[in-house]
Amino acid sequence: MSLKSTKKNKGLDRLGNAVNILIKYGFQSFLVNTGLSKRKIAQKNFPEIDSNLNNWQRIRYATQDLGPTAVKLAKFLSGRPDILPDELITEFARLEFGPNGLLKADAIAVFEQYTNRKADKTFQYFDNKSYLQDGFSATFRAKLLSGEDVAVKILHPDTQSVVLADIALFKRLASISRRVLINLGIPDPEGILEEFEHEILPELDLSKEGDRIRRFNKAYHQMAGFVVPEIFNQYTSTNSLVTNYYNSTSVADAQEFTKWGLRQKEVADSFLSIFISGMLDTGLYLTQPLKEIVRLRPDGNIYFADYGTAGLLTTDQRAWIHDIVAALSTRNSNVLADSMRKLANHSEVYDFQKFRSDIQFLADDLYFLETSDYYMREFSLGIMRIAYKHKLNIPREVVAAFNALSIAEAIALSITPTCRISELFKPYGRKLQLEKMQPDRLKSLFNKNLSQASDFLESSPLELSLILRKMRRGQFLANIGIKDFGMLLRRIDVSANKFCYIMLICTLVLSSSLIWVFAKDMYIFMYMPLPAFIGYATAAIIALSLLIYNARTSLRKEEEANSPQNEDDN
Prior knowledge:
- It is a single chain.
- The protein is an alpha+beta fold.
- Helix content is 59%, strand content 8%.
- 33% of the residues are buried.
- It is elongated and about 125 Å long.
């Protein structure tokens, strides 16, 4: 029961369709809480769903029925462990796009409409069925009149309007159920949908995908074991894309490529190595490297059949991820913590001791998961949990990169269960550590820091002058927000008491010293006048008590940070 509009259900109310799907999978309580059940919607009766399905599985099946836009949204949300439980993230990872029903005749019509070329004057052969498709597009094998084997990707002309209508529906549902979603831990449902809309709309223009292929061709041209297809620009438009066709199979189809004499472990390691190196060395990668679009040729070369989900990391983002990978491979929690703080440069960690403790716990936990099938998934989710717990504003591109690495690991494990991404991280981490000491890297870092210092020195006098001018005019205001006023008063009280004790100690030491120097005819004890000895002893007892209090306070904070309850929160 897809939300995608067709001629048969063009007049179907989309909201009613969504409500019926939720009813089908047993989410009546959600509808009651949001008030949707009171709306005048034609609700249908459905056969009983398998009672063995848990709620997470029901959500996955309901998402599948809601259509390709909902599947895209679910995959987008699978990188947000702050709002989705692990069980639901696992279920969303299993979602797949169903067939979109784009036939040869429809594909040829779209090609002719958007390129102004006749198919019979362009192709000498065009397959009857597509060999690759997702919810929005289909790719056909064809042969040009000039003799080249090509892959023709066609995007249905109604796709953009359907996706926008689906997003409008999701926004409407989010607005209606806002209070319920907030109670479930989703603080800004409308903002999440705006971010998703910004992410998906560029995928609905195949001419932009052609630009991404050119970028990959420039960035990956020297990478061994990887090829980028050539684009035929004269046949490319917003809804059609023609590239080289390669005889290939899915990289996860071990039964097929073993017939070519290729070994599963070598294919899995080659794919992971290419994906990691491409992401960290060039910044270009696929945010959704599905096994259907990661293809393997008989010569062992890998290529991507779809570049619609291509992502790009900036130079700074790649450098930060470099440091995170290198620190993780050596279990260096201090470097890992500093790298994460630099990554979230617009955030501030208020309890760095607790933050570093959480990082150390993650590093130790991953050390024992190096032989696990879920190393990268735990790596990604662990970092995201810590980021959301300490309110680090990590860039969206980095979150997508971590999620893409998790998907790549799952693909490699589907090829062979003996593949371990941690084994590739270790040599890569050592390589990154060595590269950090290279003269060119040090020179670049020095120039960058020098430039930042120069900018600071240049702008600081102007900023300071502006602040002083506002202070003179009475325009400088400070807005201080206190979350726990009682805690603030207790801390002020403790600080005041400590200050009084310190002043008392200083007074006792000073007065005892004066007595010792100037007093005469007093009883001598321990080579000093008795009053001076009493003063020194009292000051020593107070100082020792203060030191013990500070030590016990620090020890208690450290025990609270490492308590089992806090570890469970991690």
